[in-house]
Specification:
This protein has about 230 residues and is α+β, with helices and mostly antiparallel strands. Helix content is about 15%, strand content about 40%. The chain has four helices and twelve strands. The protein has a six-stranded antiparallel barrel. The longest helix has 18 residues.
């Protein structure tokens, strides 16, 4: 799986080639830097730790600053691990940007949904409620939640009032409409979870990190060899 961190900037609309309006969400994706490598020999699994959005050293605790300073890397506000097949293909300080995605890709976006607080059954579960007039005293209440004689308890999965929202949500199979490499922006068709400027994780299943260290070094060696043969 390949993925990068980003922020939800908001929603807008654009026009496609046929003149149809397409609702899109603007995401600021990357740049993300490899901060740490996790190896199966030492940690039991293979992963890379990515950092997103630099922060001032004065706003970080001393142990948190030491995690970056001993590697001579900038201090990042958000860290996230991504599983990889081979950590030897990466090196600390390597950076990935929104250029890793392109228009036409199908991606998934994970974010924290908006918190709605404590809500009733009508807003939380879409129940109809009671009549609004003719002397009724049942309007937006919960109503019956079980039988008195048997089984004499509230059944499982009964839809009741409670906290709504503020959950980790993943929206799947979103189409990438446009990628603006200059501003690290990506336009995704449809809506994604989270409020404006909320942190999101954009990933693509079945795709690995492009341009690994080994592949990049091999391409450079091949280019250098071709140049020498041309001389």
């Amino acid at each position: 799986m390949f993925g990068l961190m980003g922020k939800k900037k908001g929603m807008t609309q654009i026009f496609d080639g046929d003149g149809n309006i397409v609702p899109v969400t603007v995401l600021e994706v990357g740049p993300c830097m490899v901060v740490q490598k996790k190896s199966p020999e030492k940690d039991g699994y293979a992963a890379v730790q990515l950092g997103f959005q630099e922060k001032k050293a004065s706003r970080a605790t001393k142990p948190y600053r030491g995690h970056f300073e001993k590697k001579k890397l900038p201090i990042f506000q958000t860290l996230k691990e991504v599983r990889v097949e081979n950590v030897s293909d990466f090196q600390e300080g390597q950076t990935f940007t929104v250029e890793c995605f392109q228009a036409g890709d199908i991606i998934d976006v994970t974010g924290q949904s908006k918190g709605r607080g404590f809500q009733g059954v009508m807003k939380r579960h879409g129940k109809h409620g009671g009549p609004d007039s003719h002397g009724s005293d049942f309007h937006r209440g919960t109503g019956s939640i079980g039988m008195r004689a048997w089984p004499g308890r509230v059944l499982k999965n009964m839809r009741l009032p409670g906290r709504m929202g503020n959950d980790k949500v993943t929206t799947q199979k979103l189409l990438v409409v446009k990628v603006e490499k200059e501003n690290n922006l990506m336009l995704v068709k449809g809506a994604v979870p989270g409020f404006r400027n909320a942190d999101v994780f954009v990933f693509q299943r079945g795709k690995s990190f492009p341009k690994t260290v080994k592949e990049t070094k091999q391409e450079d060696d091949n280019a250098a060899g071709s140049a020498e043969q041309g001389k």
